[in-house]
Amino acid sequence: MNEWRYRLEEQRGTLMAIAIFLVMFTIYVSNHPAGLTANVVQTAANKGVLLAFVAMAQTLVVITAGIDLSIGMIFILTNVLASWLVLGTPAETAFGVVAVLVTGLACGALNGLIVIYGRLQPIVATIATGAVFFGIALLLRPFPGGSVNEDLADMMTGRILGVVPSSLVALTVVVLLIWIPFRRSVIGRAAYASGSSEAAAYMSGVPIRRAKFIAYVLAGLLASIGGLFLTFFTYTGEAALASGNAYTLFSIASVVLGGVSLFGGRGSAIGAIFGALAFRTIGDLLFVFDFDPLWQPLFQGIVLLVAVSLGAFALFRVRNRLEWFG
After folding, report:
1. Is 0.85 topped by the overall pTM?
2. S-S: 266 plus which of 56, 96, 181, 261, CB 3.0-4.6 Å?
3. Rounded distance, CA 295 to CA 273, Å?
4. Tens of pLDDT, residues 246-290
5. Beta bridge partners of 237
6. Range with the lowest mean pLDDT among 12-16, 223-227, 305-309?
7. All domains of the chain in start order, with CATH
8. How many Cβ atoms from other residues are within 10 Å of residue 33's Cβ?
9. Which pairs from 319-326 meet CB under 8 Å and 24+ separation?
């Protein structure tokens, strides 16, 4: 019984995010003129998956008690790069995909090196690198344009067997190949330990630096996957500052909604994914209820404020920091 209660408490944030998403999505499809159809699910999935990848990236950094404000700019940079490289023959397209993913890895590695070995605060370091990444994106694509391999784009944004959105399948594969191995590895446990108490983790001989570095590297990779999918959805690249900033802020909101502690050491990328899907559903709800789109930031802000308040309330109830992570 105690083991069951511990597991339930450990996954409480994720379960809450799943519940919030299911309630909001049920309300959405119940009031949608077309109802629950494959097209409706596909459209919602394609929009939600973009933010889900970015939210996963932010989660990896947040569990180490850091934050990455360059995530949105890596997302934009790789979108722009994909609009140049992911086209042509199958071999050229494959090379372009690899180049985009390697770029994301390099951006994440740069962030990790600056934060860990440069000993700068993550918020300061990633603001600076984010400006650099956006500057490069603007040089590559000063005006919207470019293209992408349409066959690959249609395959990744379509439906499998006419029912299951391909983007959701891709998201599931990424979770299985990146998040779960990371979470169960020694490095993953070290990342959680450093977020809970870096001093205690260091005294225990946990590889803190390596864990943090890999967390930033994988965050860059996940953001680049999101940028790649943005290119698949839009068939173009655009160095949009507003979009990069929005995705950065929305990733933090999704992390909070997903039950990931901004204090580090607690939470799951699965929760962040459902937090992202729930956050995206807010705009869909406003659409089906025919609200003015200008109300969307207000409702998003209210949902985020409530989520943050609930997390803060839970923190106030504990007597010490160790109890919060116990």
Report:
1. yes
2. 261
3. 24
4. 999 899 989 988 888 888 888 899 999 999 998 888 878 887 877
5. 145
6. 305-309
7. 12-325 (1.10.3470)
8. 6
9. 321/197, 321/263, 322/197, 324/261, 324/263, 324/266, 325/196, 325/197, 325/265, 325/266
